[in-house]
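## Example record

The block below lists the input lines for one assembly entry, exactly as stored, with component labels intact.
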Amino acid sequence: MNCTKLELRSYPPFIHDWKTSAKAAWICSATLVPVALWSSVLYGRIAVVTWLTAVAAALVAEAAASALTRRWTLGDGSAVLTGLLIAAAMPPGAPWYVPVASAAFAILIVKAAFGGLGANWMNPALAGVAFAYANWPAHMREYVLPRFVAGVDGVTAATPLTFAKGLAGGLDIKVMDALRGASYPLSAIDGAVTGFLNDSLFSRLSARLPDGYIDLIIGFKPGALGESALLAVALGSIVLVSLRLIKLEIPLAMLAVFGLLARLFGTGLPGEGFLAGDAMFAMSGGSLLLVAFYMAADPVSSPVGRGACLLYGASIGALSFVFRRWGAFTEGVAYAVLVMNVTVPFIEKAATGLRLKRGGVA
Amino acid sequence: MKPSKAVVILKDNLWSNNPIFIQILGICSTLAVTNNLSNTLVMTVGVALTTAFSSMTLSALKGLIPRKVRMIVQVVVISFYVILIDILLRAYLPEASRQLGPYVGLIITNCIIMGRAEAFAQANPPFLSFWDGLTSGLGYMAVLMAIAVVRELLGFGTLFGLRVMPAGFVPWTIMIMAPSAFFLVAMVMWWAKSMQAGRQAAGKEAKK
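Predicted structure tokens for the full assembly:
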């Protein structure tokens, strides 16, 4: 292997730092391990199988790409990361070919075909997931209840977001109460914790916490592998931000815009009033947090400048709200990021143009 | 021995100047009809015949058409042949005609036909133009049939409507939808261009 050629193939920024892209990818992957563990506890063996299948398929695809291009790239960790992120978006117990095909599509077509790591203009994992959504829509919407709620493995149920779309709402009905009214499954832990919080804290403030939020946060609900381990995702995102592996502007702008819009226009419950949306429900349901920190802020497919990052994140937030609120899928977040990935060059151009107009460095 | 003009045209239209992966014409019908092999076959035969006959007619008429209105005349000639094909299909292949629906009429908008009429038939004799139109259509057909094989096989598990895949096969929904044609056309282009680039490099080396 010619060494100078390798160097020519690396991409900017050329800054000397401990943060090589390989190290960043391995750290990112490591922060996903708690997510994998927690979802395996929740959903049992089927979750473990899905995680392992996706990572193994990603490794095989990367090895194939390495063999074709004669560049050994398995060590840069991006294949493992892509595999993990694909598994995180899969429903537990998806048939084996779903994660395998997504991983192969992500790595061979979206990444390797455009020149490998650093040259891909879309986030490979998200593109793989979108491929799976388009290809096997039925499998990708088949979610199961965690064993702690159902008592046994493999009870299928709709995710809270999908379920809420089919409910009969009203002007004064909140999402959480509507879910309970339709006897959406609730775990014993949620009842206990919410009861304790209400008795000891909220009753003194003359407020009441509806049942169900604890379930959403600790993941006692049907959902994709990554979205159920919300706390583990939050932990991982703290690591990523504190090590400055991702630009904080992107997820921050995205979540702020999304939360604001959800508050204003509701979460998708039919008949919901203006300004009465449940932002907490909207943000803890679905894979919003995971996508915001791990996929939207992917350093390869996101813009560089601060203004561009804010614009990019805010547009993703707005688009994902629109897709989720009025689209057919509740998982529009993935599509929102892909759409904005495509526009990154234009966003950067626009941001640079503005800076030049204001009399910056010309 | 120098290859004859007809052979050069054949090779050009099938490979080195293929309408789909080099000229990138006729992409709309590539996206629309290729999820079913028999429809693709009917459609591409229709396009090949229309291109051949309209190129021949326009080449024969080229001395009579005033240059300023030649586009209009070309469209009239092309639509004449498209209507013929539409009527023939309705009479002899009513099932395929129903399935293709508006796409038969839309052959008239296929850029390959106008492209050959403008680029080739304007400057060449009628029979050579006929051959050029026919081979252009064949180049188009070859690519579309290749794409349709993949799409029908993965999207329905069948080939020409006959079940090929084992019973446990789960169809790929995306292959029935238009986006898959984008991926597949891009892959065909990638393959063909890298093949041609490799061959050109080899040719240059040999000349040195």
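The two ends of chain A are 40 Å apart (CA to CA). Chain A is about 65% helix and 0% strand.
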